[in-house]
Design goal:
Elements (H helix, E strand, L loop, with lengths): L5 E7 L3 H12 L6 E7 L6 H11 L3 E5 L6 H11 L4 E5 L4 E2 L3 H9 L4 E9 L5 E5 H4 L9 H10 L9 E3 H6 L10 H10 L4 E12 L14 H9 L3 H16 L6 H19 L1 H11 L1 H4 L3 H26 L1
Parallel strand pairs: 1-2, 1-4, 2-3, 6-9
Antiparallel strand pairs: 4-8, 5-9, 6-7, 6-8
Helix pairs in contact: 1-2, 6-8, 6-11, 10-11, 12-14
């Protein structure tokens, strides 16, 4: 059995409702050699008292209380800086870990920078929603090569931070987390894919709770009129701004391969074009939602009309060039 110390990094804020269940699931892990580092971001509910209660019973729990609210990203970075283990496991305050989570992660991380896994979505009462994160994100397969994974991650994230076990040196060397990336897991996954890679485990190792304050896991709309309203309220440039910013951030660095930079330049041009071309943006918007709505005949009809218009534009440009 590997006896390497694992640091579990948890950033809390007003999490009293579900915190006990999460703390209990961590304490009951089959792998016992861990420290639980918790930074509370100036909670105003009973979170601090709950944390103190558990820390008094288990010396592996180490608490830090911010005197002002720093915000999630900064508080999360502070939590990482307090970690002393060889590995760091990211942890949310409202999930439930399977008892074997750390044991499996440590066994499979090997020489990778990151281990991450699938997760089962549950509701506020821990009742299954009969779907996993892979199902929700429509992940059919995980590419085998780091290069293909990195190409995939430019467009959207496939790794859930709450499932991650990371090499501590890798994480600390890549702080602070750039503002360009909306989520820390996306940032670390992309970096890992261009370095020592990551291992994606298709099995579920935690219950990922969906509640009124959670966004992930909410069903996409199946009503075509609602989708049209969503699209009309979206500025096409804003829709692709995250991807544009990520491409620009990578292009401003100098520690990736020339082949990767070549691909990023293509992506950057592509997203800039999408942000200014309403027809392209509309077409891709509906493609993105096809999984939930494709069986609606009205949607199919509208989609074909958009596709016809798109092909007409291409045909017009080709004919113009020939003249």
């Amino acid at each position: 059995m590997n006896n390497d110390l694992i640091s579990i990094a948890m950033a809390t804020y007003n999490g009293e409702k579900y915190l006990r269940e999460q703390l209990t699931s961590i304490i009951n892990q089959t792998y016992k050699n861990f420290e639980l580092i918790i930074c509370d971001d100036f909670s105003t509910d009973n979170t601090k008292n709950i944390l103190q209660e558990y820390a008094n019973k288990d010396s592996r729990i180490k608490l830090h209380f911010n005197i002002t609210n720093l915000g999630f990203k900064k508080n999360f970075e502070n939590t990482i800086n307090y970690c002393t283990g060889k590995y760091i496991a990211f942890c949310d305050q409202d999930d439930i870990w399977e008892p074997y989570k750390l044991e499996i992660a440590l066994e499979k991380i090997q020489n990778y920078d990151i281990y991450c896994s699938n997760a089962l979505l549950v509701d506020e009462n821990n009742c299954t929603l009969n779907t996993t994160m892979m199902d929700y994100l429509n992940i059919k397969y995980i590419p085998t090569s780091n290069l293909k994974i990195s190409h995939h991650l430019i467009h959207h994230n496939i790794c859930q931070g709450a499932t991650m076990l990371c090499n501590a040196d890798f994480v600390k060397q890549n702080l602070p987390i750039p503002n360009t990336f909306p989520f820390h897991d996306w940032y670390f996954a992309l970096l890992a894919s261009t370095q020592n890679g990551f291992f994606y485990d298709k099995s579920t190792t935690l219950l990922y709770r969906q509640h009124s304050n959670a966004v992930t896991g909410k069903k996409k709309s199946k009503n075509f009129k609602e989708l049209l309203l969503m699209k009309s309220n979206l500025n096409s440039k804003d829709e692709y701004s995250k991807n544009i910013s990520i491409c620009e951030y990578i292009l401003s660095t100098n520690y990736f391969t020339s082949e990767f930079y070549k691909y990023i330049k293509k992506c950057h041009r592509y997203y800039l074009k999408m942000s200014t071309n309403k027809d392209f943006a509309t077409l891709l918007f509906f493609i993105r939602y096809y999984n939930d709505i494709i069986w609606d005949k009205n949607v199919i009809h509208k989609f074909l009309l958009i596709l016809k218009r798109f092909l007409g534009i291409i045909r017009f440009k080709i004919n113009k060039m020939r003249k």
